[in-house]
Design a protein that fits this description.
Protein name: RNase H type-1 domain-containing protein
Shape: globular
Oligomer: single chain
CATH architecture of the largest domain: 2-Layer Sandwich
Order of helices and strands: HHHEEEHEHEHEEEEHEHHEHH
Helix content: 40-55%
Number of domains: 2
Number of helices: 11
InterPro entries: RNaseH-like_sf, RNaseH_domain, RNaseH_sf
Structural class: alpha/beta
Radius of gyration: 22 Å
Number of strands: 11
Strand order of the largest sheet: 6-9-8-7-10-11
Strand content: 15-25%
CATH class of the largest domain: Alpha Beta
Distance between the termini: 32 Å
GO molecular function: nucleic acid binding; RNA-DNA hybrid ribonuclease activity
Amino acid sequence: MKSLDLEQLAGTQSRTYQSRKITDDMIARPVHVAIALWEVPWESADSGKIEGWVIAVDAPRGRFVRSGQTKNGDVVSRTVSMLKAALKGVRGKAWLVTGRRQAALRAELVRQNYLVTGSFAEQNRAGVKASAISRRAEQAALYKAKKIGEFAERAPRVKERQEAHWWPQFARAEGALGVLRLATDASTDGVFRGAMCFVASNGDYLLDTRDTTASSDELELESITHALRYLKKIGASQARIESDSKAALEAIDFILATTPRRGRWRGITARARNHFKEAWEELEGACTVELSRVLGHAGDPLNQAADQIAYMGMRAVIFEQKSAHPTLLKGIEKALHKAG
C-alpha cells in the first residue's frame, strides 16, 4: 500500500489551513482588525434568526469598535459596508481576522482585496476586544429572545464520526538530562479523536492518541501531565513546561489551590485533574518545575513541533495504518528536526 503524502497528515493542502496561515507581513501591518459574527434564533425574522457583527479596529492613532445587527439575512453585506466606513480615513495597511466557519464573510473580504485570516489569532491586537464584545451582544440578544418569546430551540448539529483505523502511540525518552524545556499541545476533532503531545528540548517527545470526547482544554491539561510523568521517568531535576493553553494553566492554578472535588470544572473532569495532581506531587522534592504560557502559532520552534505532531497524530487515525504509519513517523522526525 502506498504511503500517504505528508501534506495529507499535516493538512497543509486544505483551504482551511491556507486561510488560517499567519505571516510576518500580516503581523507587521499597522492596522489590525477583528470581525466577529454572532447569531441567535428569532422566530419572526424572515431568516429565522437575528445576526450581528462586531468590528474592532486597532490602529496607530486609536482603537474603536463598530457593531450592529440584522434580521434580514444580509449580515455579510452589512458587515462589509460598515467595515469600509470604519476604515475610511484610517491610515496604513490593515490585517483582518474573522471567526472560524465564516467562509462567506471571508470570501467577500478577499474578493474586495482585504488581507484576511480565517480564524482569530493571538497576534492580532483587535481579536480579544471583538471576541469579548461579540459574546456579550450574543448573550444580550439571546436573553431578549427568550424574554419576549422569539427564541426557538434548535436541534444540535451532529458531527459525523469517521472510521478509526488505528491509534498512534509514539514516544522517545533517550535524550540528555540537564535543565529541560518542554512544549505541550493537544488536538481534537470535537467528535471522538484526541491527541496529546509534548516535545522536549533534548529531542525526546510523546504522542498519545485516543478515542475520547474530552474537551480541548482537558487534553491540553493531560499533555502537561504526560510531560510531568516523563520528567519523573528520566530523573530530571529541573524543567520548564510551556503551554499555549490559558485554560489548562488556569485549571492547574485551581487544582493546586483547592482540595480535590468531584464533577467537572470548566469542562475538565475530576479524573484529568486528579491525574495532574498525582503527577505533580510525585515530582515534589525531586524536580523543580516551572509552568509558563507561550503564544500559540507565534513561531516558537518547540511549540510549533508539539502542535504539528499532535495534529498529525489526530489526523492519522482515519487513515489505514499501513499507509499512515511511515508518513506519521516521517512527519514527527521532520517537526523535531525543525525544533532542534
